[in-house]
Amino acid sequence: MVITKFRGLLSTLLERASVYWERAESTFARLQMSAAETLQKVRQRSEIDLRKLRAITLDSLIVANEIFARLGSATSSATKKATAQLEKAQTAAAGFGRTSAGKVQNLRRQSENDLRKLRAGCRVAILAAGERFMELGGQVLGLRRKVTRRLRKAQDAVVGLGRSIADKPRRMRELRLTRENELRTLLASSPDAVVVTDNERRLVVANAKALELFGISEFNMGNFTIDAFLANVAVPDLDGNDSSSEGREVRANRCKIRRLDGGWRVAECQFVTGIVPRRHLYKFLNVAPYKITPPRSTKGNGSAASLRAAEGPANSIPSAPVPTKKIPRHGVGSAF
User: What is the pLDDT of residues 155-187, one digit of tens each?
Assistant: First the structure.
């Protein structure tokens, strides 16, 4: 019997470990996908910023080229003018002799002044273009630093998510153990009848008050479901994959309980889903005997069928709790 209990406990633990492992894997896959999408968005933003900088740089280069082209055209036109003036001066000198030497010198001075002005304008344009390039370089450097910071933040976020995923099974185990300890304390200290069932409504754990209320023993309670003892109690449909009703308490005003020996009890029923994973709690308060009194018959030889018809509440459940398919039982300390 001990070996059977140990095998049942081992199979239950393996089943829960596989369920927790599948949930952790699915969560880690979703987080990996979200992290990859985040990195892809950051990369796209950095590429867009670099494209904008390239466009700005190209526009600045085009503007500088236009400035240089204008300066070159102005220089060439001034040179042509100076050459034309020199030719005129030479012609005038040849025609007028020494009297035109002063005029030639004046023209040469004017051409030299024009060349100095052009050189000064070129220097100013070159300095302006250099300052513009320096500003563009500073902007590129700032954007590169921003992109680097964003990438580091994304990497830190991915590392943090990975650590939280790796630590989640341990935290889930600690939470489950805490809730199981609280449930064991409730079963041991509760003055009322308390029963724990699984998703198939099969009895898993019960305290002494509940065993006495149902008229069963601890060793055969796993052969019964809670529906075998309750009548006219609306209980939500239990599904192990549905966590929307976890921790929700459903109160029934009064419920009728059929004992294994055929006796009746009436009590206030409290129902809590998901008290621990895939386990649900029933609590029965203010338990009192319930007697079914058939109406008086006018004939002394009334049939048994008329008496059974008068027992209205008894028709709502089977005549006696019937054991379901027998499954391995676990001890009270390891039934969760």
Answer: 888 888 888 888 778 877 777 778 777 777 877
Show the CA angle centred on residue 261, arms to residues 256 and 263, nearest 5°: 35
- The upper half-sphere exposure of residue 76, i.e. CA atoms within 13 Å in the direction of its Cβ, equals 5
The burial of 229, by beta-carbon neighbours within 10 Å (0-12 exposed, 13-18 middle, 19 or more buried), is given as: buried
Q: Strand, coil or helix: what is 260?
A: coil
Handedness of CA 243, 227, 189, 286 (dihedral sign): positive
pLDDT in tens, 98-115: 665 667 688 888 888 888
Pick from 176, 203, 157: nearest CA to 41? 157
Tokens of 133: 């390039």
* Cα 110 to Cα 269: distance, rounded to the nearest angstrom: 114
> What whole-number distance in Å separates Cα of residue 131 and Cα of residue 137?
10
Helix or strand holding residue 154 (H, E): helix 101-189
Q: What is the DSSP string of 214-241?
A: HT--TTTGGG-BGGGTEES---PPP-TT
- pTM of the model as a whole: 0.41
Model pLDDT for residues 50-106, shown as the tens digit of each residue: 888 888 878 878 887 888 788 778 778 878 887 888 788 777 767 766 665 667 688
Helix (H) / strand (E) element for 75: namely helix 2-96
